[in-house]
Design brief:
The structure is a single chain. This protein has 3 domains: 233 residues, Aldolase class I (TIM Barrel); 79 residues, Elongation Factor Tu (Ef-tu), domain 3, CATH 2.40.30.10; 202 residues, Aldolase class I (TIM Barrel). By secondary structure, the chain is an alpha/beta fold. The strands form 5 sheets. The chain has an 8-stranded parallel β-barrel, surrounded by 5 helices. An 8-stranded antiparallel sheet has the order 17-16-22-13-14-21-18-19, with no helix packed on it. Strands 23-24-25-26-27-28-29-35 form an 8-stranded parallel beta barrel.
């Protein structure tokens, strides 16, 4: 069978505007994905109206193109009613699938809207075959793989009995999707809720040798261009090739879709058409490109630290500037109406503008060729000499189209708005809709309630080596959560005789990322620990539920049901996600470390029979990444233009970033205690604390907030609002 006669992968294009949607269809996309209102991971983009979504689905289906709705944002507890309405709307509109991340949304769809096809978003972090198989067993018809997977790993994932979707082109995140707290920790805007402010795109400085300051865009990834991998991906059996870019222009969408359509339609003559495909991609005005992780887990071309990572064609650097005009020697042609982005080199901030006026030697021009030195009107945008300008869209790429007859779907949209189905589904969930302790409207005082006696919640202490476990044992935590990796497992094997008395207190915690090549180690380690009498495990990822249960079934005639709990990396922000995990076999779980107090209160009220906990101290990874570039000098302090400080470390074979100050709610334990949690988590991993330091942490916790807050600690989002 030749490549062109086998089942070709679907070409899946993004659309953040009606113009981009029409461009994707016109250039030959097999399917288009668009954002669901308020629940998609590009919440900074404009939301489509119900009538617009209906028109796009109708237009797409009329042209043989599938339309997927991306509802891949994490859901807060108070957003559950809106989620019910969204799913009811989706049932009426008939998209070909929903792309989701949140297990609460999965619970709603799976139990109340079973006719909706579900695709597991890349934000669910499927990075090995066990996770893929588990998601398929849950009812997901398709799994969107982590971008960090190699061709060999993708090939294994394609043999798990579920459709596989792979990102083939567009922006790359430095971190694993679903494991990035960077934007949230530094400003309360969660990337897992579609509000990422991209701190990874900033320029970071660090102290070099002999006090010399070094600087670079060390986390700003180049754009993925996977053209060269197309034949191998098609041969592996990938069902869908996804182009990233719901925030990109219609010009970008048209150029990239045209390139990949040409390549897919000529797989047997691939080398002949490849130069033309590359030319089309180049004119799309993306970032500098990389082949990504397809060929290697450590791609040398993934980062360009000396390059800002801006989208678009580099037009030149600002020279003189005065009275709102800036002088630039053009590297590419420019027309009135083109869109530019100014990159302010000192602060790292970006400002966008449309070219309305430009002049050369006092004469106004409508267009200018490369090599001209021209003045561009920037207006009141702050600019310095040396700032960079990029062309991100062209005049011809905007304002075209509108073949869709949106007005024809106004009545359908109105009928959907009046539907009671979403409300009926929510009513059947029997959930509280308001947390306690809310002030009355109008400023009136509440009646004094009964005095609540605060009790110290049980403590689960997390550590990453046996030395810390021994140092903390006299504090009598309810459980010791010991990170399972090669180091801690080897330590355990050396003192296995002394471990038997710890089987009831120790919970072995799995890391959130277990790559395909490490599965064999973890499968054997889990089996060995169970044979030693350890049956309590904390999963860091959804797919690990299957991994632990497989190990339990592998025991020779000694099968015993493992006790499973979940760590905060499961990203639980609502009570329906708790229900989903309870159905999947978990007995307890930590709610997301991103949560704020109001969300935690309401979630705790609606928890049902599930035991819940919350992290109250630690140095959570702000991001976790597979890339380990030569320019990463672990342990050095790095600072952004905004003064944000992080330190890079290596953990379980991954690159992680930590803040210089700990996350701590120890001075707010009186508020945490009122949540009536089943436990709180103290994470001392990676800190090398002495016995007296651990004693001090427990002492602060047991004061229930009566002590003074320690300087240099972060409450994360707890006292603010998670956006």
């Amino acid at each position: 069978m030749t490549l062109s006669t086998m089942q070709k992968p679907e070409l899946l294009a993004p659309a953040g505007s009606i113009e981009a949607f029409e461009a994707a269809v016109a250039q030959g996309a097999d399917a288009v994905y668009i954002g669901a209102p308020a629940f998609n991971a590009r919440n900074l983009a404009r939301h489509f109206s119900v009538a617009e979504i209906a028109a796009m689905i109708d237009y797409g289906h009329g042209h043989g193109v599938k339309v997927y709705l991306a509802a891949n944002s994490l859901m807060r507890e108070e957003e559950i009613p809106a989620a019910c309405d969204l799913l009811a709307m989706s049932r009426e509109l008939g998209p070909d699938a929903l792309i989701i991340q949140d297990l609460g949304l999965y619970y709603l769809a799976h139990n109340h809207f079973p006719e909706l096809e579900l695709h597991a978003s890349t934000l669910m972090g499927a990075h090995n075959s066990v996770a893929v198989k588990h998601m398929g067993a849950m009812g997901f018809q398709r799994v969107v793989l982590a971008r960090e997977m190699t061709l060999a790993e993708i090939d294994i994932a394609c043999r798990q009995g579920v459709e596989i979707e792979v990102f083939i082109h567009g922006a790359l995140c430095f971190a694993y999707s679903g494991l990035c707290l960077f934007s949230s920790y530094l400003g309360g805007k969660s990337g897992l809720r579609g509000r990422c402010v991209q701190p990874c795109r900033r320029r970071y400085t660090m102290a070099g040798a002999k006090g010399k300051i070094e600087a670079g865009y060390n986390f700003s990834m180049n754009d993925l261009s996977g053209l060269a991998a197309l034949p191998a991906l098609a041969e592996a059996g990938v069902a869908s090739l996804k182009i990233e870019g719901r925030m990109r222009s219609s010009h970008y969408v048209a150029s990239v879709v045209q390139a990949y359509r040409l390549a897919l339609d000529n797989l047997d003559d691939f080398e002949t058409v490849l130069p033309e495909c590359e030319r089309l991609v180049d004119q799309a005005m993306g970032r500098k490109s990389t082949s990504g992780y397809f060929a290697t887990p450590q791609p040398a071309d993934a980062l360009s630290p000396s390059h800002s990572g801006n989208i678009g064609l580099f037009m030149g650097r600002v020279g003189n500037h005065a009275d709102g005009w800036a002088t630039v020697k053009l590297q590419h042609s420019l027309k009135l109406g083109d869109r530019l982005r100014l990159h302010q080199e000192k602060s790292g901030e970006r400002q966008s503008l449309t070219v309305k006026k430009m002049r050369s030697r006092g004469e106004q021009h409508n267009e200018a060729p490369p090599g001209w030195k021209i003045e561009i009107l920037l207006g009141d945008i702050a600019v310095r000499s040396g700032d960079s300008l990029y062309k991100v869209d062209v005049k011809d790429g905007k304002g075209k189209g509108q073949r869709l007859k949106v007005g024809a779907f106004a009545k359908k949209a109105a009928a959907i708005a009046e539907s009671q189905l979403g409300g009926q589904v929510f009513g059947g969930l029997a959930l509280r809709t308001r947390p306690p302790h809310k002030k009355k409207k109008g400023g009136g005082k509440k009646k004094a309630g009964p005095v609540v006696t605060l009790h110290e919640p049980p403590v689960w202490l997390r550590a990453d080596d046996w030395g810390a476990v021994q140092a903390a044992h006299d504090q009598r935590p309810q459980h010791l959560v010991l990170q399972l990796d090669r180091k801690s497992f080897e330590q355990a094997m050396r003192q296995r005789r002394r471990l038997r008395h710890l089987t009831k207190i120790v919970i072995w915690g799995l890391p959130p990322v277990i790559l395909e090549g490490d599965l064999e180690f973890y499968e054997q380690a889990l089996l060995t620990l169970m044979e030693l009498g350890f049956f309590q495990f904390q999963v860091g990822h959804l797919g690990q539920v299957r991994l632990v249960k497989q190990a339990a079934r592998a025991m020779d005639g000694k099968h015993r049901k493992p006790v499973l709990t979940g760590g905060y990396t499961l990203n639980i922000l609502n009570s329906l996600a708790l229900r989903a995990y309870q159905t999947g076999g978990l007995t307890a779980a930590a709610i997301s470390i991103e949560t704020d107090l109001d969300n935690a209160r309401l979630l705790a009220l609606n928890r049902g029979q599930m035991k819940i906990g919350m992290e109250v101290y630690g140095f959570p990874p702000l991001f976790t990444a597979r890339l380990q570039g030569d320019f990463f000098d672990y342990g050095r302090l790095m600072k952004s233009p905004r003064g944000e400080e992080i330190i890079l470390k290596e953990k379980c074979g991954q690159t992680v970033a930590q803040a210089t100050e700990p996350f701590s709610l120890l001075d707010l334990m009186h508020e945490v205690a009122r949540l009536n949690l089943d436990y709180v988590g103290l994470d001392i991993s990676g800190q090398r604390l002495k016995r007296k330091d651990i004693h001090l942490l427990f002492q602060r916790l047991r004061r229930l907030g009566k002590g003074r807050p320690s300087p240099g600690e972060s409450h994360f989002n707890f006292r603010s609002t998670l956006l």
